[in-house]
Amino acid sequence: HIAETLQLSRPAAREWLQSQGKLADYLLTTYENNPINPDADAAGQSWVLWDIIATAWLVHSEWVPTRTVPRAYVDEDHRWQPLSSGEMLEAYHVERNQVMREMLTDVTRS
To answer: Would the pTM count as exceeding 0.90?
Structure first.
């Protein structure tokens, strides 16, 4: 659930992306016209930037620390169930401000 900390509201998206370059304008247009997030204009709404967490971990793993845990799967009731063998990495924290600062700096630089 740590990816949920990487959220962006429409006012913040406009403030940080509008007229900041082609990539920034494209991302803002995508944000504002995304059928997955039709309530983005509603007060208090934001969009979780799911894809950013994996990229952040690849670029700066110290910003998304992980620990080794037993492998598991999600069952029909949406609950984690252990598997009989193996391990996986689980992220347990995200340095949200550093990730967002880096992403917005990179996007507006292009």
So the answer is: no
